[in-house]
TrEMBL record:
Superkingdom of this protein's organism: Bacteria
Assigned keywords, A-Z: Ribonucleoprotein, Ribosomal protein, RNA-binding, rRNA-binding
Originating gene: rplU
Function: This protein binds to 23S rRNA in the presence of protein L20.
Protein name per the record: Large ribosomal subunit protein bL21
Organism, scientific name: Halpernia humi
Record text on subunit structure and interactions: Part of the 50S ribosomal subunit. Contacts protein L20.
Length: 211
């Protein structure tokens, strides 16, 4: 059994009773510390955190505070007469891992039932809205054989085709005529042939194109 844990900004692979040096920690010698940011555990099965494994903690005891060996930092710029020499000793803490706890509490909680089962069924949409949505769906799916009365360019196409003015008044007349034809034919969507036939039959209702 082992774990990958983040201690003082660095990641370590730790096991039971392992001793290791980490960056200086707060606390006196002999004090107990615990680390909750466990990134991965292996205890028969591997568990990867996102980013940390919930419910798992790594417990440790502080054994000693000390400094690492001196590191020489020497800087020089040639032909500039610049030389600088510094020494650095990193402050460290020696700890011993006393246990990795929380495996019983790390089990995933049962998923909550979806709210869809308790949600009330949606009210049925009015027939007019359903017909309008079906018309939009027909146009969106690329069915070029049908007419979408919600698009001005399609209305203008049929008006121009029959030498009629592409005015707002004519478009409104064509929309009203389309509703009448749908009821008469018992259709929810009209084809281009249906619209042209209706215009020819009711040509007197439209304003002609001015020459």
């Amino acid at each position: 059994m082992f774990a990958i844990v983040e201690i003082a900004g660095l990641q370590y692979k730790v096991e039971q009773d392992q001793k290791l040096f980490v960056n200086r920690l707060k606390g006196d010698v002999g004090a107990k510390v615990s680390f909750e940011k466990v990134l991965l555990t292996v205890n028969g099965a591997t568990t990867i955190g996102a980013p940390a494994v919930k419910g798992i903690t790594v417990d440790a005891q502080i054994l000693n505070h000390l400094k690492a060996d001196k590191v020489i930092v020497f800087k020089k710029k040639r032909r500039k007469g610049y030389e600088k020499k510094n020494g650095h000793r990193q402050s460290l803490t020696q700890i011993q891992i006393t246990g990795i706890t929380g495996f019983d509490g790390a089990k995933k909680a049962p998923k909550k039932e979806t709210a869809k089962a308790d949600a009330a069924p949606k009210a049925e949409k009015p027939v007019a809205k359903v017909a309008k949505e079906e018309t939009k769906t027909s146009a969106a799916t690329g069915d070029r054989a049908t007419v979408n009365f919600g698009e001005d360019h399609e209305l203008n196409y049929h008006l121009k085709k029959n030498n009629l003015s592409q005015s707002k008044e004519n478009r409104e007349t064509l929309i009203a005529l389309g509703k009448e034809v749908k009821e008469e034919l018992g259709k929810k969507i009209l084809t281009h042939e249906d619209v042209d036939a209706a215009i020819e039959k009711n040509i007197t209702k439209f304003n002609e194109l001015k020459k």
